[in-house]
Amino acid sequence: MTSSVPPSPRANARPLTDEEVDRIRNDFPILAQQVNGHPLNYLDSGATSQNPLSVMEAEQEFYEQRNAAVHRGAHTLAFGATETFEAARTTVAAFIGARDDEVVWTSNATEAVNLVAYSFSNASLGLGGAAARRFRLGAGDEIVVTEMEHHANLIPWQQLALRTGATLRFIPVLDDGTLDLAAAAGVVGPRTRVLAFTHASNVVGTVNPVDELVALARSVGALVLLDACQSVPHMPVDVAALDVDFAVFSGHKMLGPTGIGVLFGKYELLADMPPFLTGGSMITTVDMHTAEFLAPPQRFEAGTQRISQAIALAAAVDYLTETGMERIAAREAELGQRLVTGLTDIPGVRLLGPPLGVERIGLASFDLAGVHAHDVGQYLDEAGIAVRIGHHCAQPLHRRLGVTASTRASTYLYTTTDEVDQFLATLREVAPFFGVHS
After folding, report:
1. Regions of the chain with pLDDT less than 50
2. Model pLDDT for residues 177-211, shown as the tens digit of each residue
3. 393 noted as active-site residue
4. Domain containing 90: what range?
5. Residue 139 shares a structural domain with residue 276
6. 327 touches 407 (CB < 8 A)
7. Total structural domains in the chain?
8. Residues 393, 403, 405, 436: which is the catalytic one?
9. Per the domain annotation, does 8 fall within a domain?
10. Three-state secondary structure string covering 196-210
């Protein structure tokens, strides 16, 4: 099957070829296994990506050769661990166009969003002094999100509004899964203090116009937080060029391990924010009644750090950089359109999100009339095809689109065109198997 639709204009590089993808797959041992007697067809990278050998080896090498606490101790292992740990920060910062001191390690993107929200909450209680006044919220202030947000970029803001008395508002979604930008101008207004939105939807694949939304926020003096979980792994992202104030993403979605996430924050903002977690490793002076805190990023990294995970994430970044983010984006643009072409040709399938030819990341979610998403996923799994089913931590978006659950196929740099075609061919069998006829 071929698609007549060219890659997204965002992906203007030469896509990875099938031959190159075959070679890439040799670096991912998990992809060689069989599931239910069939070769594994892993189409759930939007939830968690697989790890190349170099990432696993980087974490193992740390434990075999360098294991020690960082920023503590005066012995050789401690120096080596700290040096490698901070080199990982440099690698990740360069990958997103940030300064080293603008990258904060977290456990995941969810924690990163909560870090910002709780810091603002602490500022609203008067912590952080005069420097933190810009982050204080109260009755009359507004926080704006979108109707397509992952729960991780919605619930922390709901809770912040409850704690501070601020009002939470949202930019609605149109029937095609894109944001209602005309309505956005009426939602973001002079009372808006924070605008938080996803770069790319984990459900419908929509790539949001960051420049337009940032400009809207700037026009009213609001801060911007970007959920980059589905963009940083799949396309070139330069946070300085995007001019967002904060951005978050997770290691496990970009070939890295679980347990490591990243908060990017403009340094002048991080420097004025009160900390979220407190304890050791983030202080300068402590007595029995008061404490003074380190400068960012260490101010936000209390306790023993995710050392091996950060080092492994840097190895993942090296792998992505060597492969070429522009080429990865171009490949996934093709795969995304291939999914859309095939899905819209299957009777009973309702594609969620933009139609054929509209820019999307390499994933697609759909509803199959008469068959629950869980049954669709189980049938595909019997054929060795791993997809995501459910509401994908985005219940409001599913409710807006008129479904309670959907099935999602998501690709990555190791996904072959044959795997996409096998998925589509197997999906055609599902409705007849369950006795549903269009």
Report:
1. 1-11
2. 999 999 999 999 999 999 999 999 999 999 999 99
3. yes
4. 66-321
5. yes
6. no
7. 2
8. 393
9. no
10. EEECECCCCCEECCH
